[in-house]
Amino acid sequence: MSLAETPAVPRRRLRGRSQWKGLVYIAPAMALVIVFFLLPVLFTFWMSLHKWPLLGEPKFIGLGNYVRMLSDSRFFAALGFTAYYTVIITIAIFALAFPLAFLVERQRRFVGAYRTAIFLPVVVGLASASLLWTWFANVDNGFLNPFLAWLGVLDLKTNLFATFDSAFFVICVMVVWKVAGFTMIILLTGLQAIPTELGEAARIDGANRWKRFVFVTLPLMRKTMALSLILSVTGSILAFDQFYIMTAGGPQNRMISVVYYIFNQSFVSFNLGYGAALSLALLAILVLISIVQLWLLRVGEDQP
Amino acid sequence: MTTSTSRRGRRARTAAGLYHGTGLLASLFFLAPFAIVTLSSFRHGTEARLPPIPPWPTTGFSLDSYRTLDSFGSGIWQHTLNSTIVAVSTALLTVVVSLLAGYGFSRYRFMFKNALFVLIIATLMIPFQSILTPLFIILARLGLNNSLVGLTLVYVTLQLPFSVFMMRNAFDAVPKEIEEAARIDGARDLKLLVRVLLPLVLPGIVTVAIFAFLNSWNEFLAALVLLSDNSKFTLPILMTAVRAGRLGAIDWTAVQSGVTVMMIPCLFVFLLLQRYYMRGLMAGAVK
């Protein structure tokens, strides 16, 4: 009230001062983002144009690193493995998370306890979970061998980490155990947003359970599913911890993911320039996926 | 009449039985690994080297596995301390920085405000895994390589998009009238923020702190790359040494106790502050 009555000049000065103050409040955040994020991103481009050893002077080689990348069969092997892992693990996570979301959807007795129990592995680290399951599945004194032998599906002396398929299986079980609760909660929010009247109406129209799921529930959950799909896909493409900890790259180096390969090139072989070029390739792939994500989410909005 | 009622009752009972049966089975699958590794880690030295059948100590509780773990690196206390320092300071610093930024973005008008906000949020689009190589070089130039301070600053930056977003929303939800009233009473700027607004955005602060703590406690790759000195290792990095083994043999008893030490704080924080955690999860997912 009194502010409106004051003359124009002090008011402009006041706005000028508050503008300056606002910038002061966000300054620490901006400084961190610039130094530890923006600068590294720009620096990645610069580095990728150099042969950059750990010690000694970097040498400008133009697009040399990118040319090298195109004929790097191990990089393409890493891409192929990462794609394979992403597809398998995403299917596995959804195959478990969807039924679980239905299980804990309605407010029933103990539903909170079940939700918490299923979600609990999400809060421990991927490194901890990887170590836990490495011990679990080791042939000398693990839990899985005696347990599976008792079930009669595995020999007591089979080393699960010895072959690609069985090691890959153990890693997938670990990741599903660790992540399914998260996907379940995301799907649950989507399920609960569906008005119950719609399901009722379909039931009265004679639609059975399966038809209601396919024609009512699934279309209405499109946006939620797109979201959890993207979170799962991006997370899997960036996978590193589980392969490094559980199999150290796997039997015959067949479990080197893209991030693992960048790590090896940058911090084991110290080809830092080449590592930067590989990082940019990874970034390009992820940006492409982000575009697909936005497209999927928009499609979800068009047909609510 | 009676038959139909009893049939309905039987069907409801079957449905409830199916629901609880599946629920219990699922809970068992997700909880059993925690229980098995924690209980197994308290077995005696010789017993701890055997498969965990049954998965609990049969010859009395013992801390042998923890003693073995202590013989790795610079001792378990040192590495737990490192992890705690990094996680607690990441949480504190993230809260302070995002509180100020959230307040600035919510209550002030300045040039490029929206562009700067989008810039902070947009860092989510670029995963830190893809900028690790230059980050390594930049930290070295700043003299912050192989230091817990450098690692903490990187972690705080990684937390900022989520945290600034959370805090701006928290401030947006505070009615402007409260602020006007406090202003009339003479509270200004930082005093206003700390005395009047802080209690009102406390739930947001708790959420931001939990996520910063858990993510930095659990983070693996950045710590693996940025820390090279044995005495600076956080717990997950120490555990790679345990996992690699000594003289070709892996001491699995140290793995059991190490995993337990790494998991317990996470489970504790989550179970204690579950409500705030879930709020953050929803806000992050809907974003």
Radius of gyration of chain B: 25 Å
Question: Helix content range of the residues of chain B, please?
Answer: over 70%
Supply the number of helical segments of chain B: 14
**Arithmetic mean of pLDDT of chain B:** 88
Low-confidence stretches of chain A: 1-14
Shape of chain B: flat
Largest interface: A-B, 87 and 89 residues
Biggest pleated sheet of chain B: none
Write the H/E string of chain B, N to C: HHHHHHHHHHHHHH
Please state roughly what percent of the residues of chain B sit in beta strands, choosing from under 5%, 5-15%, 15-25%, 25-35%, 35-45% or over 45%. under 5%
Q: Which stretches of chain B of 5+ consecutive residues score pLDDT under 50? A: none
Structural class of chain A: mainly alpha
Q: What does this 3D model show about the protein?
A:
- The complex is a heterodimer of chains A (304) and B (287).
- Chain A has 304 residues and is mainly α.
- Chain A has helices spanning 2-5, 8-48, 64-70, 73-103, 111-123, 126-137, 144-151, 164-192, 196-204, 209-220, 222-237, 241-247, 258-267, 272-302, and strands at residues 50-51, 59-60.
- In chain A, a hairpin with a 7-residue loop joins strand 1 (50-51) and strand 2 (59-60).
- The radius of gyration of chain A is 26 Å and the shape is globular.
- Chain B has 287 residues and is an all-alpha fold.
- In chain B, helix 10 crosses helix 14 (274-286).
- The longest helix of chain B is centred in the N-terminal third of the chain and has 39 residues, at 2-40.
- The radius of gyration of chain B is 25 Å and the shape is flat.
- The model of chain B has no long low-confidence stretch (mean pLDDT 88).
- The chains are: A mainly alpha (304), B mainly alpha (287).
- At the A-B interface, helix 2, helix 5, helix 6, helix 8 and helix 11 of A face helix 1, helix 4, helix 5, helix 6 and helix 7 of B.
